[in-house]
Amino acid sequence: MKTETAGSLYVGTSSWSFPDWRGVFYPAQTPADQQLSYYAAQFNTVEANTSFYALPPPKTLLRWLESVPDLFTFSLKAPREITHEKRLVSVEQTTAAYLDILRSLGSAAAPGLIQFPASFSRNSDGRRLAAFVDSLAADAQEIRLSVEVRAFDLMTTAFARFLLERGIRFVVVERTGQPDTFANWQAAAESTGTRLPLHIRLIGNDRDPLPDDKLIRRPQEELLDKWAKRIADLLKDGTDVFCYVHNPFEGHAPETVRRLRDRVSQYLPLPDWNPTTERPAGEENSGQLSLF
Description:
By secondary structure, this protein is α/β, with parallel strands linked by helices. It has one domain: TIM Barrel (Alpha-Beta Barrel). The chain is built from eleven helices and nine strands. It has helices at about 35-40, 50-55, 60-65, 80-85, 90-105, 120-140, 155-165, 180-190, 220-235, 245-250, 255-265, and strands spanning about 10-15, 45-50, 75, 110-115, 145-150, 170, 170-175, 200-205, 240-245.
């Protein structure tokens, strides 16, 4: 369905702190505590993976928010305790803490990423997963959430529809050895009539590590062309897109983000990202971190 207003593109990398980016993406002398502010001047979103290992304390979240401009967003990954270690068994407390952090970020929260391992399948864990999703739909309606699955029996139109019907995004992943589930998401979106944003992760061949993260070592021209066309078509139809690029996709995620944006802009003009982190004296931080 065509709309008069184009969707918004939020595209960035998976994390912002890599030693090999120093002197390549970051100026050589950039202190570690200034890397996020430099990053946020280039891109408008980032996937934060540190939360997968431990939820960030309030002081860390506040430091992040003070380092980025208005309209910048963080996609926080759910703790592995929920998805990988306890596999949704007795995870109510950790889940509540994760959701509270997303709430505290306010408008700076991109869709939170809940990623399940390949061993977590419909056959072995389907009932538990369905109950978990239903609980999220009931208890966290105001929070933007996305679910990524890696078991093939969950990479289906039916499961994508199940999520979308509950206001939760189905993550489409470009990863070597996995099916392309864009058509599944598209069919589910059409059947439900949803206008939820599409959440994309471009991972590539993470099973074949590259020697470093400094430059483009395995260009993915055809894949970038494919995704640029898909993203542009969605934006033209008024659908927002959140897209996160990992270093293994081509070798140096910041340059891949630029290459992808350039391709998308060939189909429709993208707004410049010229942010400022300055706030008028006395202005509150949009109510963020109010839970703390």
